[in-house]
Structure formats: structure tokens, C-alpha cells
Amino acid sequence: MSKEKLTWKIEAEVYDSINDLLPEHKKLVESAKEALKTAYAPYSKFNVGAAIMLDNGEIVRGTNQENAAYPSGICAERTAMFWANSQFPKEKMLAIAIVANKEGEVNLTPVGPCGSCRQVMLEYEVNQEELMKVIIQGEGGQFYVFSSAGDLLPLKFSKDSLG
Ligand code: THU
Asked: Domain residues of the chain, as ranges?
């Protein structure tokens, strides 16, 4: 029998309507939703749009980009973050909104970012020494707002772990 148990707890604020979000988060979600139109997902038909709010007020968007060689594709979040850090390496990423829809379906539950995207969010969050908020929505459903990307990665591994 183990000596003790550890528990990790994740909290998110839940909103039913986009109008209940902070104005800047509403704008960001709208931008992620707009990005959905340019998702390239011919194989999964699962479209994802991401929008990042930078310190300088810029909003940077990205979508999932699939490939016939499946692993060569990339998620919307990483498309957006890599673009943001390439164009504006000095700007902090204050929040990222992620919206997803599946062709022909509505009311998805919010889609949690994949493990690789969580790891990349953590990288930038740790470097910028400021929390990155994460807002997720299945297009047509509720909004979950996390106050930190790190919250999505219990037992996180970052440069601090390398010593
Ligand atoms: N996808 C994202 O864009 N973000 C995620 O966090 C999860 C998955 C994409 C990758 C692929 O194009 C499609 O969704 C189905 O996995």
C-alpha cells in the first residue's frame, strides 16, 4: 500500500455565453472562430482555430494544418504560437483562445489542447514570466477559461526542471 496520495486539481471558469467573457477575451474568441474558416483539415474534418493576444495588442491567429503524411501536420495552437514568437519574439502571449468544430456537427464540448501544444504553451509561459490564459470552446458550446497554461500540465517539465 502506498504511504500517501497526492492530488492535482485544475480549475477553470465556465461561461455559457461569449458576452459573459471579458471584452478582450470575447474579441480573442471571435478571432479564433474566424480563423476556423482557414483550417486545413481534409483528413480529420476537425477544424481548430487559435488566436493569441500579445502584450502589444496584436492578435496572432493559427489553424491546424494537416498533411497526407499524417504526422507532418500541426495543430492550430502551435501554428499560432510559433508564428507569434517568430514575428514578435519580445511580446508576451497573454492569452490564447482555441475554438474547434467538426464538419457537420455542433455543440462540441470544449476541446482540450493536445499534450504537445500544452508543452509549447508552457515553454513560452515560463520564459515570459507571466501567465498565459487559455480559453477553449467547442464552437457552439460553453467556454472554459484557465488562468494559466501551466494549469493544464500537472507535473510540468520546463527549463527549470533541467536545473
Ligand atoms: N488539433 C489541433 O489543432 N489542436 C489540438 O489541440 C488538438 C488537435 C488538430 C490536429 C488535427 O488536424 C485535428 O485536430 C484532429 O486531430
From this structure: 13-37+47-154
Q: Distance between CA 139 and CA 36 in Å, rounded?
A: 10
Q: Say whether pTM exceeds 0.90.
A: yes
Per-residue model confidence as pLDDT tens digits over 68-88: 999 999 999 999 999 999 999
Whole-angstrom distance, CA of residue 143 vs CA of residue 27: 13
Asked if residue 66 has its Cβ within 6 Å of ligand 1, the reply is yes
pLDDT tens for 12-52 read: 999 999 999 999 999 999 999 999 999 999 999 999 999 99
Pick from 129, 126, 117: which is nearest to 62 by CA?
117
Alpha carbon distance 59, 55 (integer Å)? 9
Which is catalytic among the residues 77, 91, 125, 139? 77
The amino acid sitting at 51 is A
Residue 41 Cβ contacting ligand 1 at under 6 Å: yes
Architecture in CATH of 13-37+47-154 = 3-Layer(aba) Sandwich (3.40)
For residue 115, give the C-alpha cell.
499534450
